[in-house]
Amino acid sequence: MAESTVLSRKHPCFDPEARHSHARIHLPVAPRCNVQCNFCNRLFSCANESRPGVSASVISPKQALKTLESALRSSIPISVAGIAGPGDAFANVEETLETLRLIHEHFPEILLCVSTNGLNIAPYVDVLEDLGVSHLTVTVNAIDAETAASLYTWVRIDGETLRGLEAGQVLIERQKVALHAIATHSFILKVNTVVVPGINMDQVPVIAKTVADCGADLHNCIPLIPVAGTPFADINEPLSEEMQRVQALAGAYIPQMFHCNRCRADACGFLTEKECV
To answer: What is the residue-wise DSSP string for 90-153?
Structure first.
């Protein structure tokens, strides 16, 4: 049996059966982001919304270790510790790597998982492997600059803020580099795609084929959550039948995830629980 299959059986996001027996904890150590998605409004002191980009607070790496220790003392069977925001893990490189180092040192049996937009992960894939990270998630919402420019207000690299087609082109190029770099290592790779009607919905099957060709193992199509105060606030969430069609088409190229709970950046518990916090 492949090692990746064994590992995924302990990760509730990568194996639907694991969600009934294995829990995860997200540690919100990454407040800053290097892109501005047109559907995202990051909130760092929110206990009321349940969606990506939201957490009740931002914590330090040492606080993250204590948070994990406390959770492990409870009755929750946590098998995975992940970093999923509320910003991007690699817009907060020091905090991300230190958190992973502390957990790997103190709890080597815990699976480590990191989510990112892929803009800045490529230089760190060797370090991530050395730190024991087994699972990675990269969000890819477009494969051409025009669509990316419609999805992102700006992209920030080395202190420079890019907009429009230039931003879109740089992002998709860096994401492809990241996917290929990840594929040369032992990571289990999931790609998330936020499905936005009228923007990228028709492109999702092509995204699926592209990321599969780059070595991704799993694809998660996430329906847009309209968020007040964002440019996409007035775009309706995709209908369930639209999502089923998109997933069926994408599934011709890569296995699909059907049990995503669209969790907060500080989620803790079973994926089957309606309230993630």
So the answer is: GGSHHHHHHHHHHHHHH-TTSEEEEEE-SSS-GGGHHHHHHTTEEEEEEE---SSHHHHHHHEE
Task: Look at the block and give the residue holding tokens 């069977």.
Answer: 77
Cα–Cα nearest to 139, from 106, 156, 117: 117
User: Which pLDDT tens digit goes with each residue over 200-259?
Assistant: 999 999 999 999 999 999 999 999 989 888 999 999 999 999 999 999 999 999 999 887
Give 3-269's CATH code, choosing from 3.20.20.70, 3.30.70.100, 3.40.50.11260, 3.40.30.10. 3.20.20.70
pTM metric for this prediction = 0.90
Count of positions (residues) in the chain: 277
Relative to beta strand 35-37, strand 152-157 is antiparallel
Residue type, 176: K
Domain boundaries, the chain: 3-269
